[in-house]
Amino acid sequence: MPRVGLDWRTLHVHRATDRGAEFYVDCLEYGHALWQRGLAARAILCLDRALGADLRGDEAELARWPLPYAAMRWLIAQTPPDVFVGNPRVHFQHFADRMNEPRRDQRRWRAWACWALVRAARPEFPADPRHLVVEPTRAEIAAALRGHGLPGETEIWLAVVGA
To answer: pLDDT above 90 covers what percent of the chain?
Structure first.
């Protein structure tokens, strides 16, 4: 359960610091709190930010809280019809295609991985027809995660996207 009283300041404190393991856990916890408040779109954005944390793969926090691909798919699949979620497929499509540094390739392919999760969990979400982009295959995403992700990340994602 998330701590009581979490708000925007939970992540704001990391603005001037490194965005490592503590930032990662705060993103997960704040995302959970936002979900409990019925703010699905903002919760998804918090998980998105967690995936952008600067992690090596050997952090104790990752052992306890693996990369949130399963949580991302669950949130997308479980958002009630009357709760605003926007179009996460378009969000991740735009995010992946317009990624900047730091760790551009890693973050870009994680965005494509989440895009594939949206397509699997909620295939009714349309692509953005005005944003022409070459959509990668699952095999291309897996190969890129192997090259740019953390050890074991590809297997975590494959298990979730194939669920």
So the answer is: 85
Report which secondary-structure segment, H or E, holds 45. helix 40-51
Largest alpha-carbon pair distance within the chain?
Answer: 43
For residue 61, what pLDDT is reported? 97
Integer Cα distance of 112 and 156 in angstroms? 15
Per-position b or e across 19-31, b if 16+ CB within 10 A of its CB: bebebbbbbbbbb
- What are the sequence ranges of the domains in the chain? 9-161
**CA-CA distance, 81 to 84, in Å (whole number)?**
8
Omega prior to 102 cis, within 30 of 0: yes
Q: pLDDT digits over 7-50, tens only?
A: 777 777 778 777 999 999 999 999 999 999 999 999 999 999 99
For residue 5, is pLDDT > 90? no
- Summarize the chain as % helix, strand, coil (round to 5): 60, 0, 40
- DSSP designation for 54: -
Token reading at 32 = 């959970």
Number of H helices, E strands in the chain: 9, 0
